[in-house]
User: What shape does this take?
Amino acid sequence: MEQYLQNRSSLIDQDLSFRRDRTKANTVSELSADRAVRQIRATEADSVWLANESAYYGDDTSPCIFPGMQFLTAKSLIMQTKLFKLLVKMPKGALLHAHLDATVNARLLLKFALEHPCIHIRLSRPLTITSITTAIPEFRPLTAASSALSLTSDGYVPGEWVPIVKARDSFHENFGGPEGFDKWIVDALMINPSEAYEQYNTTNKIWRKFQSTFAVSSVLIRYKPIWRKYIYEFLSSSVDDGISYIEARINFHYKHMFGEDGEESVPHREWLIDLEEVTEQFRQTLKQQGRGNEFVGIKVIYTTVRHATPEGLEWYTEDCIQLKQEFPHLIIGFDLVGHEDSLKPLIDYIDPLLKFRKRQEELGIDIPFVFHAGETTGDGTKADMNLYDAILLGTKRIGHGFSLYKHPKLLQICRERGIAVEACPISNEILRLTSSMPMHPLPALLNQGVPVALCSDDPAVFGNMGLTFDYFQVLVASETTGLLTLGQIARDSLQHSLLEPAEKEHALQLWESRWNFFIRSIVEDHGSVGDQQVN
Amino acid sequence: MEQYLQNRSSLIDQDLSFRRDRTKANTVSELSADRAVRQIRATEADSVWLANESAYYGDDTSPCIFPGMQFLTAKSLIMQTKLFKLLVKMPKGALLHAHLDATVNARLLLKFALEHPCIHIRLSRPLTITSITTAIPEFRPLTAASSALSLTSDGYVPGEWVPIVKARDSFHENFGGPEGFDKWIVDALMINPSEAYEQYNTTNKIWRKFQSTFAVSSVLIRYKPIWRKYIYEFLSSSVDDGISYIEARINFHYKHMFGEDGEESVPHREWLIDLEEVTEQFRQTLKQQGRGNEFVGIKVIYTTVRHATPEGLEWYTEDCIQLKQEFPHLIIGFDLVGHEDSLKPLIDYIDPLLKFRKRQEELGIDIPFVFHAGETTGDGTKADMNLYDAILLGTKRIGHGFSLYKHPKLLQICRERGIAVEACPISNEILRLTSSMPMHPLPALLNQGVPVALCSDDPAVFGNMGLTFDYFQVLVASETTGLLTLGQIARDSLQHSLLEPAEKEHALQLWESRWNFFIRSIVEDHGSVGDQQVN
Assistant: This one.
């Protein structure tokens, strides 16, 4: 029996030997904090999750409550847990996968819009009590006066622009009045539980709603004054959540932003000048608050959408090169975005992408690929095959890599070459690649030694602002994963960032110092349980 | 570009090099048949699946229709496809994972019960229109007369036994009359779509309904005259579906069966004598029909339930040894069954299981372990850890192994030692380990070179009679998988059976001959498309 237990322990060690949370010796405090967190998780598995499940056979009224369950249904419960409150304070490292135009709370975006009287709104069809749940509002900054006063009056002619403030004030009480207006806009900017889990409960269906949220927000965010506020808010809320560095994907698909004059004429370089100015302003504010060490910076991955023709892509790669030349420290990567299952696969773009690499060599610049790939449940489909092309094209990281776990050779390559996966667990769940966290293949990647960074993807749409929610969902859905796993994930997010070596070194030092402080605070708060072996 | 495509092809080859469907050179006919099947699949992806999806954004009335979708919702649509009709004719090889007491169509089991006037039925609470959906009928063979005449009359006293035929005939029209009775019994024996996908939409919840079906069927199947009919029907329907050999798990948890006299006194050895006699009778019938070559035989994996105490388990291991000594060619394995997430893990039974091995050595017999393990979405939980113990205890195959894909070392061991996984895709989906086939981790096992046999598990409860449904769901959910993959899975089911070497050789020869016939028939029917490269 003793022999058996020895063999068992050795087999488990071999099986988990690739795991990156096992590569580093842990301090006594770290082990103690990890045990404390496991104990909280075990306690709350009963007191929060099991207690809220109507556990009796035959009761069909309760939703399905369990750790790692559907995020949109669980969110309020999650926020009440001790575990969540503890994780809020954890230094998260880098946010490596977020689409900048989907990073700010939808209510705040609406507030920004209402602060600008020139923002107008219109509808393509009259609003009815039933159509309001799917009616898509359209925005536009307009300087010319508009005569229309209400979207809900009988006299409203579809297509007429109404100033947003007036539209809100005059929103008919049958539609809930001004609060009804706010709810309508926020609902159009986000995915709600019934959409994700009932109405559009497949990847293909929910992607349609997902894309419609971008159609609503796009003009607002591309209005230069709002763009600046938006970036500031994104930085501020991210740093408040413990994120110290960001590599944001900016969608340069639209060639211009709307200026204060309402003209759609602001070129890409000005978007970046704004970004730099706002970042500097944010940095100064933090310094004044004595929080300078909490923020390393933000850089940009240039993206456009996978529906460009191969020839059309060249406009964007040239544009990207020009921006890289003007903002060498800001532009750090290139990617193609959109629904992989339905849009063009990477293989269609090999020609322009190889040309793009060649042009860079000639010009002596380097814009690494950081491709989305394998964001699919498909096996051997074009979206799944994107993984091969991403790796052959030399991608530095893989966005999503949801289907990577199926590919033995690619797992080995990612482990050996240090190609990190930007895993977006809540995004994957809401976009119906997985039904809940226990079904998510992330543990397979961790056990295979693939470096992983957790990412929020489009928190404005999903409601997973910051990184705490994604860390939480990952932590509660696995007994193997513990606080020290999350620590290694945070460390890896900086390690696999595209910072310059000296910047990276600096960012890692700042993180380690905050991590040690975090660990000490857990041990101080929960020291008494530290000696009991949980799990 | 040419160089790129060469590198790409080489990377894909490396990635898929472990796959067992790539280990064998294929004939021209096989390749042609595979292409034809891929073409049918591609055509039906549009004509059957896409055509039935209400693809418009905003339409929330249609269920989510796609290839590999929820089986219980899709079943009738699946049966209309060309692909299904083609797969029915495929020789499936061995059925290696099926619980004998859940293998026969529920309507047939009810028919068998109605053929025996001594079968009585009772209820523990009065039946109401609302309680009927969850009311559990209880059966018992009784020879004494009963005065009660109806379950639905006002005078029915809960607990009173009613003869089943009378109970059916007198079932009140408010409950649907005799047809309502049949529906009630069949519903209690099966899982329906609303139970799996709405009411009890988590593994824990649906397991309660799942277990309740066994509570209903258990006494009926353990009534000796029905037991014999049940086995015959299982053999007959399996062979009709192209299954040529079966390793059935029999649950010996109950120590006795009910005899014709209604006494619960028939010991395990008589169960097996019945099995042998019925099998022989079935074999003779097949021979008379000139179908002798379609059936190799049936053998038995002894199982009991994971809630036994470690000491209590020894009664069963001793019982298993005695049966092995009396029926050496029939008893070919030992397993523990039940809900892994909630019942005792293998590690609790190491002591009696090691003793069991030692006793076998002393007696010069061999009863290999064939353990259920990893039938869970858990990561590092006791159910997931069962995989380590199953392998350390020398399991010949793994039942389910749903969580195996997360374990790099265990995948390697299974590949290298030829430990096959008995994959039960439809069972996993209905029991909510996965929400649909595209989310099932089976492709990861195939790509890792783990031998796989597809199995139906409990088709009486799930409605996936035979193996065609499981083969279908696997085929439509992956572009990598093709007909030749299914062929290799069928071949592997025999290769990894526990037949004696000579028996195995014989079974494989019979299968290869039927496979070649099947391939030829596809080529003859679809030869014209054989030359077009699909996929």
About this structure: Chain B touches chain A through 66 residues (CB under 8 Å).
